[in-house]
């Protein structure tokens, strides 16, 4: 069974606090996937340039902290040994991060106006692509623009395989951290649905896609990005978000049982991104929201695995989605 639904505008005010549908079975695996999905979306939204007061209101009313704590508590209860002691320790560390967030919001952000949040975002990320902590995967670990094109093509292949695309009014690239994290939010949520309504084979496709995306993409560049972001921010909201994201990535790698080859400082070689011939990827000076148009496409998900298998059989002719 497939959900034939388009959600062109997803934000934590709606999706991150989704209550479990009545059809969801009382299964630890379902709850783990659903609450991992929530954490991914919280982090995704926190990295965006705030165009309006929605995220600021979400912070000030306490829902950001409440939703994060609730997701972590359920994950801890339902962990069942997944990821071992390391995963359990990381959940405890993440709980402390949300405690710090509560204190920070109460003392610093409670009286903020939208202009204050926007100013803090610009201080850290600037109005253009900052090279101190760029939230773009293709600026990490690439010797030349052809490697960047290869990585961007592989990311596009993941999105296409699962029927996911940016909304028409988005002014961001496919490799922005917020976009990639919202894709992981989508996959984890899709896993929770699949475990209730689909067979083991379709569920495994979604699980394997999460593992591959963490191993080949966010698990490689996000840890270094978080260190750079923490250094650039130095203190305040985005320093806290950087530390929280780093802890979350550490948890996810242990939970999913993947071991990415992370980039280090010597792998950071920023360059201007050149799109593959015939392809365009928009990038604005400021984010205009990170809404993904989510189209659940079971055929696409299956084709993702089939294409990957064909690539192996054809001596790796190129990444999925490459131009």
Biggest sheet layout: 3 strands, antiparallel
Determine the structural class based on helices, strands and strand pairing.
Answer: mainly alpha
Q: Which oligomerization state do the chains in this entry correspond to?
A: single chain
- The CATH architecture classification is Orthogonal Bundle
Low-confidence spans: pLDDT under 50, at least 5 residues?
1-24, 272-309, 315-323
**Major sheet: order of its strands?**
1-3-2
- The H/E string reads EHHHHHHHEHHHEH
Radius of gyration: 19 Å
CATH class: Mainly Alpha
Give the beta-strand count. 3
Estimate what percentage of residues fall within beta strands.
Answer: under 5%
CATH homologous superfamily caption: TorD-like
- Quick check: average pLDDT? 79
Tell me the overall shape: globular
Give the CATH topology. Answer: TorD-like
Distance between the termini: 32 Å
Q: Residue share in helices? A: 55-70%
Tally the helices.
11
State the domain count.
1
List the defining traits of the structure above.
323 residues, single chain, three-stranded antiparallel β-sheet, disordered C terminus
Structure description:
- The model is unreliable at 1-24, 272-309 and 315-323 (pLDDT under 50).
- The protein is globular.
- By secondary structure, the protein is mainly α.
- The protein contains 11 helices and 3 strands.
- The longest helix is centred in the C-terminal third of the chain and has 34 residues, at 200-233.
- Helix 9 packs antiparallel against helix 10.
- The protein has a 3-stranded antiparallel β-sheet.
- The protein has helices at 12-16, 28-46, 54-60, 63-78, 84-109, 114-125, 145-161, 177-197, 200-233, 237-256, 298-313; strands at residues 6-7, 164-166, 292-295.
- It has a single domain (22-313), classed as TorD-like (Orthogonal Bundle).
């Amino acid at each position: 069974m497939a959900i034939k639904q388009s959600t062109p505008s997803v934000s934590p005010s709606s999706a991150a606090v989704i209550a479990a549908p009545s059809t969801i079975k009382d299964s630890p695996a379902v709850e783990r996937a659903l609450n991992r999905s929530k954490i991914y979306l919280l982090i995704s939204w926190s990295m965006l340039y705030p165009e309006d007061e929605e995220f600021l209101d979400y912070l000030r009313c306490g829902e950001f902290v409440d939703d994060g704590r609730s997701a972590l508590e359920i994950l801890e209860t339902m962990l069942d040994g997944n990821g071992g002691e390391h995963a359990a320790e990381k959940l405890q560390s993440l709980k402390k991060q949300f405690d710090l967030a509560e204190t920070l919001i109460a003392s610093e952000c409670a009286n903020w106006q939208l202009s204050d949040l926007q100013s803090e975002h610009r201080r850290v990320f600037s109005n253009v692509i900052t090279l101190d902590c760029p939230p773009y995967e293709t600026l990490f670990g690439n010797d030349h623009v052809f490697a960047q094109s290869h990585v961007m093509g592989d990311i596009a292949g993941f999105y296409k395989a699962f029927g996911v695309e940016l909304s028409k009014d988005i002014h961001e690239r496919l490799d922005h951290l917020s976009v990639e994290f919202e894709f992981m939010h989508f996959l984890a949520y899709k896993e929770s649905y699949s475990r209730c309504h689909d067979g083991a084979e379709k569920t495994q496709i979604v699980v394997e896609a999460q593992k591959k995306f963490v191993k080949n993409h966010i698990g490689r560049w996000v840890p270094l990005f978080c260190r750079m972001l923490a250094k650039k921010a130095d203190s305040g909201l985005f320093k806290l978000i950087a530390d929280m994201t780093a802890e979350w990535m550490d948890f996810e790698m242990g939970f999913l049982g993947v071991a990415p080859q992370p980039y280090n400082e010597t792998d950071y070689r920023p360059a201007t991104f050149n799109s593959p011939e015939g392809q365009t990827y928009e990038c604005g000076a400021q984010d205009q929201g990170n809404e993904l148009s989510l189209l659940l496409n079971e055929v696409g998900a299956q084709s993702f695995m089939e294409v990957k298998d064909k690539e192996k059989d054809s001596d790796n002719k190129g990444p999925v989605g490459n131009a």
